[in-house]
């Protein structure tokens, strides 16, 4: 059997490497196409993108190794054409990885912002719960305060109003509807009749105070 010359051996090896590279370039192109398609999906996840980038990187490294082997076997006059071919695929891989990394960063920032919003919302809810608990405590304590009941007598108005104003009217932890409830509970006789027809609302609470102050029974106050 005739022995192959060194040049023939190199030629066979070169052809073998080029065929292998052709298959690998096909795999790279397929992976890039998949990534470009995935990028357009609204429900794509960071994990999916990172997995695709990892596969593309591995293919790129394999391609780089074969390109290096081919460069060592080609003729000088083929270097320019070979270089352009190699750079074309390097550029494709680099561009795809860059776009995908940018998208991963964007998705991650959106996720962090959402988590921050959720943490903030939890904090607000916690503050709201604490405020509600404080108000509940105030509601429990208020009935224990000594506030004289007012029946419409002029001589009793000042004592009643000073006590009610200090304990309830100026208490910022009590909402106006609750204040209105307390006011009604401390009124009797003609004083209660003045506001009896008012609906239990925050606006009517202010109106009821004005009525009591401006009524002819207590007009001097």
Keywords:
single chain; 221 residues; 7 helices; 76% helix
Structure description:
This protein has 221 residues and is mainly α. The chain has seven helices and no strands. It has helices at 6-39, 46-71, 79-141, 154-169, 176-185, 189-195, 202-214.
Q: Name the poorly predicted regions.
A: none
Quaternary organisation of the protein chains: single chain
User: Rounded to an integer, what's the Rg over CA atoms?
Assistant: 42 Å
Biggest sheet, in brief? none
Q: Taking all residues together, what is the mean pLDDT? A: 79
Instruction: Determine the fraction of residues in helical runs and give it as a percent range.
Output: over 70%
Give the topology string: H per helix, E per strand. HHHHHHH
Question: What count of helical segments does DSSP give?
Answer: 7
Q: How many strand elements? A: 0
CA distance, first residue to last residue: 129 Å
Backbone structural class: mainly alpha
Shape annotation: rod-shaped
% residues in beta strands = under 5%
């Amino acid at each position: 059997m005739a022995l192959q010359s060194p040049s023939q051996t190199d030629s066979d090896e070169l052809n073998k490497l080029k065929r292998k590279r052709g298959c690998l370039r096909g795999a790279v192109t397929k992976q890039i196409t998949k990534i470009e398609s995935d990028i357009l999906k609204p429900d794509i996840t960071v994990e999916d993108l990172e997995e695709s980038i990892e596969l593309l990187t591995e293919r790129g490294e394999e391609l780089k190794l074969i390109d290096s082997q081919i460069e060592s076997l080609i003729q000088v006059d083929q270097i320019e054409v070979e270089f352009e071919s190699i750079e074309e695929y390097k550029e494709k891989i680099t561009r795809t990885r860059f776009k995908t990394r940018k998208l991963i960063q964007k998705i991650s920032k959106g996720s962090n912002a959402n988590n921050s919003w959720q943490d903030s919302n939890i904090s607000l809810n916690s503050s709201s719960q604490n405020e509600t608990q404080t108000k509940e405590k105030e509601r429990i304590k208020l009935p224990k305060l000594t506030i004289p009941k007012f029946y419409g007598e002029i001589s009793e108005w000042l004592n009643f109003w000073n006590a009610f104003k200090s304990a309830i009217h100026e208490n910022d932890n009590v909402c106006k509807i609750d204040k209105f409830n307390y006011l009604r509970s401390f009124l009797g006789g003609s004083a209660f009749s003045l506001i009896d027809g008012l609906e239990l609302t925050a606006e009517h609470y202010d109106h009821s105070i004005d009525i009591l102050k401006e009524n002819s029974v207590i007009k001097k106050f």
